[in-house]
Design goal:
Layout lengths: L1 H16 L4 H4 L4 E6 L4 E2 L3 E11 L5 E3 L10 E13 L2 E12 L3 E5 L3 E6 L6 E4 L3 E6 L1 H64 L2 H14 L3 H7 L3 H11 L5 H18 L4 H8 L3
Parallel strand pairs: 2-10
Antiparallel strand pairs: 1-3, 3-6, 4-8, 5-6, 7-10, 8-9
């Protein structure tokens, strides 16, 4: 119980004394400072803004104009002052237009502001932290600011160019393969026409030799080779033995060569064979 009454007594004393010390318990004006840009260029103007603000009426505090000492190499070109008041919040704005004469690291000392609260003649002070900033050249700033997006763009363009080159290369390869296949098909179609001519004349020796030549040109040569495995022997017998092939043998060879031709050129083979009109 003694502890309870002791705490109650202390609290009562504090409550009674609160009105006697308003300037001690009320918050002092808040001050802040900032630069208008992240990258400061040499020989290009930039601005420093100092703000003092508080809750209450404009006459709650009397603020002395700040005295700012700029580091060597930083020139003050001009300054301006403005105020705003909104919903019980009052602010003073001090703007300084500055010029950095050369590149380097700079430090702005803490800015101190003197103020007096209404009804109190005692001077109070509040100050900001020191401000460190770097001044650079245009080229360095450009590279520093844009190196990452520039690198990404360069990588993208490099990959895009590589894909374009690869696509064109594959397209040329496909076109070349298509062209070669077309030439081979037309060549074989022409030889099939010659086969027809030899067959009509009964020139079986040249007929069989031309069939053998066609088999060697067909892309499906491995398949036709197994189908017509006795073709070489038959050519030798006709050429050197005077053998006359039978109608069944000729028809079999004819069907096999047509089948191989269609298999090798499924898109245009049927049309070519119709144009040739094999007999």
């Amino acid at each position: 119980m003694k502890s309870f009454f002791k705490a109650l007594y202390i609290s009562s004393i504090i409550f009674i004394l609160l009105p006697s010390y308003p300037y001690k318990l009320k918050a002092a004006p808040a001050v802040s400072r900032s630069l208008d840009r992240d990258i400061i260029l040499a020989n290009k103007t930039f601005s420093l803004e100092l703000i003092a603000s508080w809750e209450g009426d404009s006459d709650r505090y009397l603020i002395a104009p700040p005295q700012i000492s700029f580091p060597e190499g930083i020139e003050e070109k001009s300054s301006s002052f403005s105020t705003t008041s909104k919903e019980g919040h009052y602010s003073l704005y001090y703007n300084y237009q500055l010029l950095a004469q050369k590149e380097g690291e700079y430090a702005l000392k803490p800015i101190e502001i003197s103020y007096w609260e209404k009804g109190n003649n005692k001077e109070e002070k509040v100050k900001t932290e020191a401000l460190h900033f770097k001044v650079t050249s245009f080229n360095t700033a450009y590279l520093t600011r844009f190196w990452l997006p520039g690198t990404l763009i360069a990588i993208f363009l490099g990959l895009f160019s590589a894909l374009v080159v690869l696509y064109k290369k594959k397209k040329r390869l496909r076109d070349g393969q298509k062209s070669d296949a077309t030439i081979t098909r037309e060549l074989i179609a022409g030889e099939l026409e010659q086969c027809n001519a030899y067959k009509i004349k009964g020139d079986w020796r040249n007929y069989l030799k031309k069939i053998l030549s066609i088999c060697n040109k067909l892309p499906t040569q491995d398949k036709t080779g197994t189908i017509m495995e006795d073709l070489d022997t038959l050519v030798e017998k006709v050429t050197y033995g005077g053998l006359r092939p039978t109608t069944e043998e000729i028809n079999l060879i004819q069907r096999q060569i047509e089948k191989a031709f269609k298999s090798a050129f499924p898109k245009d083979g049927d049309k070519d064979l119709e144009g040739i009109k094999l007999r």
